[in-house]
Specification:
Length: 206
């Protein structure tokens, strides 16, 4: 049986990874904050980036980030495996994306044509999608056009959303709830539950 107290090889590589992430986070955060400032995106204290996230703010729209928000886009910063950089975009005029305090995002895409509100202390697992629009018109013959009826998405405080979830328009997720990995959320989820599946359904009360 291996004596882990003497596993110097693993300890050395662990330290190398830790120092690399600290350095990379510092550089990424400096560049990320400059990018947000140039795009007139409001952000709070202790914002952190691991790798390059992509932000796009449409004219006369709002993206607002709270305090202690973290975006992980570097593929090795989360060992579950990140498939893309974080993407946060308002798509049209008057759209809004509001993110509360102490929330974290790993390889998450957020696209708003109307309004997406994410509360405080929210964890969004790797490779999730959150959108308030179908992106294209669903009517036959008009599918080259944009969705004419975007909705809203509201995610409460202290919500945990697992790996690879898709959150669609006109959805609310209540405070403290947990969404299982791989779920497709197309209907409201109440507070204080565990929900999962496609379509996502409540499976347990907390």
């Amino acid at each position: 049986m291996m004596n882990f107290k003497r596993d110097l090889n693993a300890l050395i590589f662990q330290k190398i990874r830790s120092y690399r992430l600290i350095f990379y986070q510092y550089i990424s955060t400096c560049i990320g904050k400059l990018n947000l400032s140039l795009r007139k995106i409001e952000y709070g204290e202790e914002l952190k980036f691991y790798g390059k996230a992509y932000f796009f703010r449409a004219p006369n729209s709002i993206i607002k980030l709270g305090n202690h928000v973290i975006f992980r886009s570097d593929e090795t910063s989360n060992q579950i495996g990140l498939m893309r950089k974080c993407i946060v975009s308002t798509l049209v005029e008057n759209a809004q994306i509001i993110i509360g305090n102490n929330s974290g995002f790993s390889s998450v895409s957020i696209g708003a044509a109307k309004k997406i509100c994410i509360g405080s202390n929210v964890i969004i697992g790797a490779n999730c999608l959150i959108t308030d629009t179908n992106w294209h018109n669903t009517a036959v013959g008009l599918r080259h056009l944009s969705d004419p009826t975007p909705g809203e998405v509201n995610i409460g405080n202290d919500v945990y959303i697992g790996y690879g979830c898709i959150i669609l328009k006109n959805v609310s997720i209540g405070d403290n709830s947990v969404i299982g990995a791989g779920s497709v959320i197309s209907n409201d989820i109440p507070a204080n539950v565990i929900a999962a599946g496609n379509p996502c359904r409540v499976i347990k009360q907390l």
